[in-house]
Amino acid sequence: MLLAGRFGAGTVHVLGGALVAAAALGAVSPMAAAETRSFVVSYFYDANWSDGKTDCPDGLNLSAIDFYRRDLARAGKTHDEIEAALKDFPGEGGLKQPWVPMVVTRGNGKDNVYANPTTMPDMGLKEVKGKYAYGFNLDGKGAASPNSFEDPDTHEQGVNNQLYRTMGCIRSFRGLPPPGRPSLAENLWDVLRDVIPAWVVTLDAPDGFAKDGAVTVTIDRSLDRITRDASGTAAQADMTFRIDSDPRSHNVLQGQLKGGVVMVAGGDVHMQLDPYLMPDLQMTKTHLRLAFNPDGTMRGMIGGYQPWMNLYYGLADQGHIKEYAGSIDIPAVYYSYKRNADFDPDPKTGENRQISSTYMIEAVPAFIVPAGSDKTAEAR
Amino acid sequence: MRHTSTLLRLALSAATVAFLWATPAPAADGDKPAGAETVTRRLSQEQYRQIIGDLFGPTIKVGGRFEPDIRREGLLAVGASQVSVTASGLEEYDKIARNVAAQVVSEQHRDTLIPCHPAKPNAPDDSCATQFLRDTGRMLYRRPLTDEELASRVKVANDAAVGLKDFYSGLGISLATMLESPKFLFRESIAEPDPKHSGQFRMDAYSKASQLSFFLWDSAPDPALLDAAAKGELETDSGLAKQVDRLLASPRLQGGVRAFFVDMLGFDEFQTLAKDTMIFPKFNPAVAKDAQEQTLRTINKVLVVDQADYRDIFTTPKTYLTPLLASVYAVPLVAPDGGWTPYQFKDGDPRAGIVSQVAFVALHSHPGRSSPTLRGKAVREVLLCQKVPTPPANVNFTLVQDTKNPQYKTARARLGAHATQATCAGCHKIMDPIGLGLEGFDSGGSIRTMENGVALDLSGELDGTNFTDAAGLAKAVHDDPAATSCVVNRAFAYGMGRLAARDESETINGLQKAFQDSGFKFPALLRQIATSDAFYRVAPPQQLGSVDQPSKLAAGTRIDSNNSREESAQ
C-alpha cells in the first residue's frame, strides 16, 4: 500500500484505496473522503523575525574579529599581540592561524572555551527586545506569559520563543526581511540536506482537506536524500522517499485542520539530525502550523521546548569555525541560553533546562513509501 | 610533416568524397535499378566512441570536441554524407587521436592492448609494430591495410621510436596517424562490377561489411564480419544472410536500433534544449538525459526485446523510469540505486507511447511554454515523414506568445486567433489540431489540466481522425499508414546515407510490403533492408571528383512517405 501521496495543480493522490477527494486547494469536496498529502522538507531554519528596526534596539552583536579583540584584551593580551595574531584573520581558519589557539583558550588561557564556556565571564550578548516573534503560545499562559512575544502574522499573544531572543541579534541569524532565512542557518541546512537523510511529513485527514477536522501529522526520516530541482534552491517535487524504520525519528502528532491550515498543539518530536547543525532535534510540547501553497508546496512552523545544552553543543562542537563564520560569540550564547531558558527546571538547581524555540519548514510534495518497498507503487 | 600530410589528406577527402557517380545511372540489366551514387560519410561522434570502445575497451576514454553533425532530409545519417572537417575540427581530431593513442600505449594498458613486447622498450621493433598496426589498422580502416599503408605506418612508428628512444611512444604516434586518417574518419564505399547484373556496380565486400555493421550496430565491422568479407561470404545470398542474422541476434542490435531512433527522433536537439527553471523547476539536464533514455528504452523493449508491432511504440503503456523522471511524471517510484525500473501506466492514463513521453513533449516546446504547433509539426515531420512548409518571415507571433492575454487564456484560443491571419491558417491547420491533443503536458513534460485557470480541451484531429486526448492522438498515429511507411523510408535512408533514388521506388514499395507482412516487426524490416541487393548497389562510376568540385549530394530525387515522386529541393 502506498502510504502517502501529494497534491498540487488540481490533483490529489489518494492512498490505501480511499476515494479521490478534492481538486485544487480550497475547492469544496462533493463528499468527505480520507485524504493524505505528503511532503519532503526542503528547508528548515530558525524562525527569526527581523524588521531591522524594532527587534534589536541595542544594536547587533559584534562581528567575530571585534569580540575576539575585546576578549583577548580582557585576557591580558596587548594590542600589538592581538593585532599580530589577527593580521590575516580569518585565513583559512585552520589551527595554524595564529589567532586560533588564542581565541580557543581565551577564557583562562589553557582550556577550550567552547567545551568550557564558563572559563569566560558573561560578556553580555545583545538580545532581541522587540514585540514580535514567530512561534507559539507554548506555556498556555497567553499574554501573561513572561518574556513572551506577539506573532507578527497571527497576532497570537504569549508567543514563547526564547531561542530567537538569544540568537536574533546575531548578524548571521537575522531573518531579513521577514520571513527571511537567517544566512547561517540557511547555509548550514543547504549543505546538510544534500547528505543527510531527508525529513518527510505526512498529513492524514480522515475527512479530507477541504473541510475542517482532525488531522494526523507524521514526521519521519527517510532512507533517501533529497534531490535539488532545476533552480538548485528547492527540493525536487514528487520524488519518492522510503521511510527509515528507525523508531527514533518516527513521530505521530494529532492536530486539527482549520481553514486549510494544519495546527498541532502538543506532543514530542525527535529527529536524528547531524552534528554539523545539531545532533538531533528534541522537542517537547511541540506545536505546528502548516499551510499549503497554490503550487502544492507547504510552508509553516514547528515550535517547542528543546534542551538548550543540545543547542549549545550544536554550536560549540565546531568551536572557532562556526564562531567566526557566523560571528557567534559562543560563550556569550551559552550564558544567554542559560538565562533565557524557560521550561523544565532542574529539581536541584531550579534552573530551566529547556528553551522555547521555533523553526520554519518549507516542504515540497513527495511520495512516501514504507522502508521495505522494493517495487513501484501504483500510479495515480 | 606527418601531421601536415594527414591534414591535407583529410581536406582532400572532405572536398572530393572519394567517388562520385552520376545519379541515377541507367538500368543495364533488365529492370534492376542501377542505384544511386555512393556516399562517403563522416563518422559520428557516437560511432567514433563505439569503435574505440569495441577495439580497445571501455577504459580508454575519448575526450574532446567533435565536429557538429548536420541534419539533412530528417536524418543526421544523411547529413553525414554532406559534411567535411573544418580547420579547428582537424585540430580536435588530432587531439582526440593523440589522447586515445597515448592511453593505448600507456603502461596501464599496453600489456593488454598490444599483443607483443618489443625486444627493447627504448628502441624500434618493426616486428611487434607490424603485428599491432596490421591488426589495429584492419579494424580502424574496416579492411586490411595495403602493404604500402602498413609499411608507412610501421616506418612512422620506427622513426618516432628512434627519435623518442621509446618503442611505445613511437607506436602511439603511428596509431594516432591512423586515428586521424580520413580512412578511419570517413566511411568510403568502394564500387566494383556486379557479376550478377551485367553493367551494374555493387559495393566491394569490405564496403558491404561496413554498410551492414554501421546499419545494424552503429559501429565498425567486428573481426567475424571482416573475415566473412575476406572469404567472399558476403557475395553470396546465404553468406550475407548468415551474417545479417548473426548481427540481428547480437545484443549489440539494441545499440544500433537506439542510434537509428536517436537520429530519427532528433535527439541531438537536446544538446541545445533549455527550459525556464522558474516555470519548470523539475526540468533539469538530468531529466533531459533520462527522458531520452526512457524513450529509447521503451522503443528497444517494444521493437527488439518483445519483437512487437512497430506501431506499438505509439501506444504502449509500458516504459522505464528513474526516480528523477518519475518525479516529472508525478508517480511514485522506488529504486534505491537510482537506476531504471520498469513501469506501466494504468489504463486510461494520458501517458501512452513515446509521443506523450517527456522527451517528445519537452523537445517540441518552447523554453517557457508548450507549443501545439511545434508538437504537431514534429508528429508530421518526424513520425510521419510529411513536410510542413516553413512559416513566412513576416509572421507576427505576438498574440501566440502572449500567454497572459486575458482574452485568450489557452494556447487553443491564442492559436485560433492567430490562425485568422490568412498567411498562417493554411499551415497551422495541419499542425495545431495534432498538437492540441498534447496540451495536457506542459513544456517540461508534466501533466496539467488547466491553463490560466481554464480547463484544457485536448480534442484534436489527425488527417480525418478525431480524438479527445493524448491517448487518442497516440492511437491515431498508430493507425496512420504514414507512420509505418515513414520508418521504412527513414531506415533505408539511414542505412544508405541518402534518400532513396527515383528508380528505387520499387525497392521501397517492396520493403513496405514486407514490413506489413511481418506484422510490422522492426527487426524484420532491418533484415529485409540488410539482405537486399539495393542496399549494396551503386551506380557505375563515371567520373572522379576533383578537388575543386564539392561533393555531390545524394540522389536527385526522393521518395516521400506516400511513394509519390518529387524533385528534391537541393
Provide an overview of this structure.
The complex is a heterodimer of chains A (380) and B (570). The N terminus of chain A is likely disordered. In chain A, 52% of the residues are buried. In chain A, a hairpin with a 2-residue loop joins β1 and β2. Chain A has two domains: 294 residues, no CATH class; 56 residues, no CATH class. Chain A is of the alpha+beta class. Chain B is mostly helical and 570 residues long. Among the domains of chain B are: 136 residues, no CATH class; 211 residues, no CATH class. In chain B, 47% of the residues lie in helices and 7% in strands. The N terminus and C terminus of chain B are likely disordered. Classes of the chains: A alpha+beta (380), B mainly alpha (570). Chains A and B meet through β8 of A and α15 and β7 of B.
Layout of secondary structure:
The complex is a heterodimer of chains A (380) and B (570).
Chain A: E1 7-8, E2 11-12, E3 35-46, H1 64-74, H2 79-85, H3 99-104, E4 149-150, E5 157-159, H4 162-167, H5 183-192, E6 199-205, E7 213-221, E8 239-242, E9 250-258, E10 261-265, E11 269-274, E12 278-292, E13 298-307, H6 308-316, H7 320-326, H8 330-340, E14 343-345, E15 352-369
Parallel strand pairs in A: 8-15
Antiparallel strand pairs in A: 1-2, 3-6, 3-15, 4-5, 6-7, 7-9, 9-10, 10-12, 11-12, 12-13, 13-15, 14-15
Helix pairs in contact in A: 6-8
Chain B: H1 2-16, E1 20-21, E2 41-42, H2 45-56, H3 76-79, H4 87-104, H5 110-113, H6 126-141, H7 147-164, H8 167-179, H9 182-185, E3 186-187, E4 191-193, E5 201-203, H10 205-217, H11 223-230, H12 237-249, H13 253-264, H14 285-305, E6 318-321, H15 323-329, E7 341-344, H16 358-363, H17 372-383, H18 398-401, H19 411-418, H20 422-435, E8 450-451, E9 454-455, E10 460-462, E11 465-467, H21 470-479, H22 481-496, H23 505-517, H24 522-530, E12 537-538, E13 541-543, E14 557-559, E15 565-567
Antiparallel strand pairs in B: 1-13, 2-3, 4-5, 5-12, 6-7, 8-9, 10-11, 14-15
Helix pairs in contact in B: 4-8, 6-7, 6-8, 7-8, 10-11, 10-13, 12-24, 13-14, 17-20, 22-23, 23-24
